[in-house]
Structures are given as structure tokens and as C-alpha cells.
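Project channel, design review

CF: Before we commit to the Actinomycetospora rhizophila constructs, I'd like one complete example in the thread so the newer folks can see what an input/output pair looks like. Taking 3-hydroxyacyl-CoA dehydrogenase NAD-binding domain-containing protein.
RD: sounds good, go ahead.
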Amino acid sequence: MRIACIGAGVIGGGWAAYFLARGVDVVAWDPAPDAADRLRRTVDAAWPALTELGLDEGADRARLRVVDSLAEACADAVFVQESAPEDLGLKRGLLAELVAATRDDAVIASSTSGFPMGEMATAAGDPSRLVVGHPFNPPYLIPLVEVAGGPGTDPLVAKRAADFYRSIGKSVIELDRELPGFVANRLQEALWREALHMVAQGEASVEQIDAAITEGPGLRWPVHGPCLTFHLAGGEGGMAHMLDHFGPSLRAPWTRLEAPELTDDLRDAMVEGTAGEAGARSFADLVAERDRAVIAIRRAVAQARASSPGAR
Ligand SMILES: NC(=O)c1ccc[n+]([C@@H]2O[C@H](COP(=O)([O-])OP(=O)(O)OC[C@H]3O[C@@H](n4cnc5c(N)ncnc54)[C@H](O)[C@@H]3O)[C@@H](O)[C@H]2O)c1
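CF: and here is what came back for 3-hydroxyacyl-CoA dehydrogenase NAD-binding domain-containing protein:
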């Protein structure tokens, strides 16, 4: 099986590493002159985590081929994962090119963080094979992929994409409608906007915001998500008591849903704050630290779930 990775930055590189670990051939194309070296570094950095989680038969970094043209990458690919920059005009042109360059049974999935396929497919002659396959960083470690077609997508293609991702070990949410930002980024952005507001207003530092999540609610989310978490917050009365009790505070003006203006001062505060938090840890140190921790968390949650009496 041959998979084409179009665009090989943070996400395309992460996808390439994941596909290689599943024992398939990966052909990558990216127009940047340094893309091949960057891609190999990304794959090398991901390999210890992938090895720790278990490589499939045939998994081999040597099965990665970086080619010089989009056409060469697409020839004979049965699945294309597009991970080019989040720019609507670029995506429109690129997806149209991919439709023209691929065989007519190939599925073309876009990693877009939030553009609905209906908006990205406008230049494609035949949009039926175009679908969103939205991963989370790093795609080699975070299981979730959100799959959503546009109005012109053949529903069977969306189903094939979802089945394919599941067959290689991903957790898939299939959306039956176009929703800007899909599910997870809508939730994530609400939190992120409020974090930026708090920094812009001097209400909390970058470090305090990160600690508020990693030392607080962030520890519960990998286990139960925000809804089941609040079900437990209602005590034995569960979600019903929780809503009756805390419902009125939903109207309290705690959060601002409009995005703040991204001023130079706010940008600098975020950049300096995160650099301060990272301290002496390099980018590679932080990636390795995150990967070790995510593996441990995934294992711990799986073990805890498996030993619950009602385990499914
Ligand atoms: N970074 C994240 O956390 C994240 C998470 C999920 C989804 N995404 C989505 O993944 C996609 C890629 O994001 P990224 O973070 O990897 O960006 P990135 O900047 O790291 O990588 C983009 C790559 O695309 C290449 N590129 C430029 N023009 C191209 C073209 N015309 N055709 C093909 N490749 C081209 C660039 O050289 C670069 O290597 C975006 O759609 C983004 O929204 C990002």
C-alpha cells in the first residue's frame, strides 16, 4: 500500500512517521528546499515513541521516499494526506491539483484545522474524493482524527477514509455535517481565546495559565472528557444535580468568546512567557518529554478503564 504525504512540516511529517510505523510505503512531496531533511528529522524524532507503542510488521523508515514533484508523489497512491499551510487559496488550488494527479479511486484527505471541505473544494473538477481528515499534533501519538466530507464528497469516500484511519489504529469522529473547526478545535479555541484575553489584560501569566490546566482540569480530561467530568462534579446526583446547582453560573460573565486583538504586545508576552516556561529545555527536549508523558497517560487510562467493572 502506498500513501502520499503532500506537505511535510510538523503535521505532514508526523503523519509520515505514523504511516511508516504501520508498515506501509510513504511517498512525500513538499516544495521547500529543506523539506526532505526536516522530514527525516521529524520521523527520527518520532520513531522512539512509535517503537515504544509497537511497530507493525514491515515498519521501516527506509520505506519513506521524498520526491521532487506532486505528480510523482501521487502516482499509484491509494490514499493522500494533504498537510500544506492553512491558507484557503493555497488549499483550493492544491486540492484541485491532487484530484487531477491521482488515480480515480484514491481518497484525498486534508489535515486542515478548520476549513470546511465545501470551501476548499471549489476549484476541484470532481470533489467526490475530497474529505477532511483532521489530526492532532503530533499525529503519530494523538489518536483522534475528525473526518468530515463537504457537499460534493461521496459519502462512501468519507466512510472509506474513516475505515482506513480506524484500520491503522486511529480513533475517528465522523461528522455528518460541515462544522467550521470541527469538534475538538471549537472546544480548544474557546479555551485559547480566554487564555489570550487573560494575558492581554494582565489577569494571569502564561505560566499560571499552563499550570491551571496541567495541575488542574487537564488531569481529568484524558480520562472522562469535559461532560463526564462534570457528571462526577454533581456528586451522586450526577449531571442533573450539577446543572441544577451550577446552571445559573453559566450566565456569569466569566469568559469572553470574542477573540482578543493579537497586538504586538500580546504576541511578545506569549512568546516570552512560553520561552521562560521552556527554560533550558530545547524544542527536541520538550517533544521527547511530551511523547513520554502522552504514552504513559494513554497506558494509564487504558489500564484504569480495563479494570472498571463496567469496562466495554
Ligand atoms: N500544527 C498543528 O498543531 C496542526 C494540527 C492539526 C492540523 N494542522 C493542519 O495541518 C496543516 C499543516 O500544518 P503544519 O502545522 O504542519 O504547518 P507547517 O508550516 O509545519 O508545514 C507546512 C508545510 O507545507 C509546505 N508547503 C508550502 N506550500 C505547499 C504547497 N503548495 N503544497 C504542499 N506543501 C506546501 C511547507 O514547505 C511546509 O513544510 C494545516 O492545514 C494545519 O491547519 C496543524
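RD: helpful, thanks. The pocket of nicotinamide-adenine-dinucleotide is lined by residues 6-12, 30-32, 35, 83-86, 90, 94, 111-113, 134-137 (CB under 6 Å).
CF: The mean pLDDT is 95.
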